[in-house]
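lol forgot to send this yesterday, sorry. struct tokens for the thing we talked abt
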């Protein structure tokens, strides 16, 4: 499959990296050399390989490495991120015009998969509720119009084509008329299939450029066969300069391509890959996601998961630090009061829950919950001075008596509250330190 060998070689490279200690510059250089060879052998353009490896090297040697990861994981993470980068970074979707019709022009070499893609896109758009019109502007190849007709029929899409037997038409006029036809017939998207040649040539480029000028497309998609290897770069550059494409469609990604075109074309043209074509069927069309493609190339699902886990463990350590800070601060009766009020909110849920069917057991538990007790607790705490609320140690007999009188309860009630609070405070401290609380009556959890 595409990227198969590249994946294997990169995986081998990573496997050879030590998992302990710090990477030496020699380790990094060795690794970068391996990556470089693997990419070149996969037909990635030299220019792209150079930039890529330079970045990986710089980052692997720099201070910006992720300290949560071991050296091997750090390199994998860097390579992964840089791969996402050369594949275009963020996912880019097809852009539809605010005022229809959206005009999408397709360009590319003959046999690149343009016509097939036209059908795939039309079918996709139909599914999404659009009313695409296919325009047959490839009047070069005798059978091209016919082929688009077949594709349109399979996609269930409308087509605009010059009458057969009218001799060789003018593709620029056909394109312009096609857009006009779409406007009249209320098609909201126009897909123009243009002529391709076996190689880049000036006449073809001029024609494509003229069609672009005549139809002012919202998107000019350059369809490129992922199998074409090193030629990809020159072809892509030529189309970028000649027609100014807005996005790229990688076709035949289902084949045995070594993947070089896929890896080069976005960074060489500076244009995003929007779709991946993955078969001859009209449903074989995927939105292109740089990050998913990178993961697929690295073939490192497991390793990436490990990295995520390491990262999470690291985050947990950070959380632990915050928790320790919290543990030194005091949990006061004010906090306790706040928690009580949270509980009270639950009390008012009682009525609501009671109305729901099947809540029998839950309702019983809620019935046991005494709202008045919370009110009593609240009253007791409110009868304390601010100093008493932050430090229960000073609550001697006379203070307790004063509080009991102030809140209309007995001293026993006050004692019970203070005891409960002190237990809760202890528990909060344990939890904050990362331990498991020993809740009375429940045993150690
Ligand atoms: P065009 O000349 O650019 O219009 O290219 P076509 O659409 O006619 O495609 C050329 C050949 O490639 C046809 O045989 C298609 O069936 C085949 N093809 C197109 N897209 C794909 C694809 O994504 N995967 C595979 N395996 N074949 C494809």
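and heres what i got for the seq, position by position
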């Amino acid at each position: 499959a595409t990227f198969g060998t590249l994946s294997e070689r990169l995986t081998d490279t990573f496997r050879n990296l030590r998992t302990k200690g710090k990477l030496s510059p020699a380790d990094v250089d060795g690794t970068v050399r391996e990556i470089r060879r693997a990419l070149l052998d996969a037909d990635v353009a030299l220019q792209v390989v150079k930039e890529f490896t330079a970045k990986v090297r710089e980052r692997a040697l720099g201070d910006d490495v992720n300290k949560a990861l071991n050296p091997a994981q750090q390199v994998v993470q860097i390579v992964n991120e840089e791969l996402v980068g050369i594949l275009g970074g963020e996912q880019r979707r097809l852009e539809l015009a605010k005022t229809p019709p959206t005009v999408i022009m397709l360009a590319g070499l003959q046999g690149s998969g343009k016509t097939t893609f036209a059908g795939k896109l039309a079918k996709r758009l139909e599914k999404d509720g659009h009313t695409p019109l296919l325009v047959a502007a490839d009047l070069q190849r005798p059978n091209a119009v016919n082929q688009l007709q077949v594709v349109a029929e399979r996609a269930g899409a409308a087509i605009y084509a010059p009458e057969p037997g009218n001799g060789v038409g003018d593709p620029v006029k056909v394109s312009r008329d096609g857009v006009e036809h779409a406007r009249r017939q209320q098609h909201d998207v126009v897909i123009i299939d243009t002529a391709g040649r076996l190689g880049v040539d000036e006449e073809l480029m001029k024609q494509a450029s003229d069609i672009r000028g005549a139809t002012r497309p919202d998107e000019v998609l350059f369809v490129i066969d992922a199998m074409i290897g090193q030629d990809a770069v020159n072809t892509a550059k030529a189309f970028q300069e000649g027609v100014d494409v807005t996005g790229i469609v990688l076709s035949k990604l289902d084949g045995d391509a070594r993947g070089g075109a896929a890896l080069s074309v976005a960074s060489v043209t500076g244009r995003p890959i929007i779709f991946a074509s993955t078969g001859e069927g009209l449903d074989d069309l995927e939105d292109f996601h740089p990050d998913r493609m990178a993961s697929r190339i690295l073939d490192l699902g497991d390793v990436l998961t490990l990295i995520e886990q390491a990262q999470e463990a690291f985050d947990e350590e950070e959380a632990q630090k915050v928790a320790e800070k919290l543990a030194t601060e005091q949990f006061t009766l004010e906090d306790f009061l706040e928690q009580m009020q949270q509980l009270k909110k639950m009390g008012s849920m009682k009525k609501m829950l009671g109305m729901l069917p099947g809540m029998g057991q839950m309702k019983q538990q809620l019935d046991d919950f005494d709202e008045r007790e919370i009110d009593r607790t609240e009253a007791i705490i409110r009868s304390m001075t601010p100093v008493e609320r932050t430090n229960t140690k000073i609550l001697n007999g006379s203070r307790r008596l004063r509080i009991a009188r102030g809140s209309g309860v007995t001293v026993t009630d006050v004692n019970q509250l203070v005891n409960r609070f002190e237990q809760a405070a202890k528990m909060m401290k344990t939890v904050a330190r990362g331990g498991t609380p020993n809740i009375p009556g429940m045993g150690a959890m």
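The CA atoms of residues 382 and 407 lie 8 Å apart. anyway ping me if u want another try
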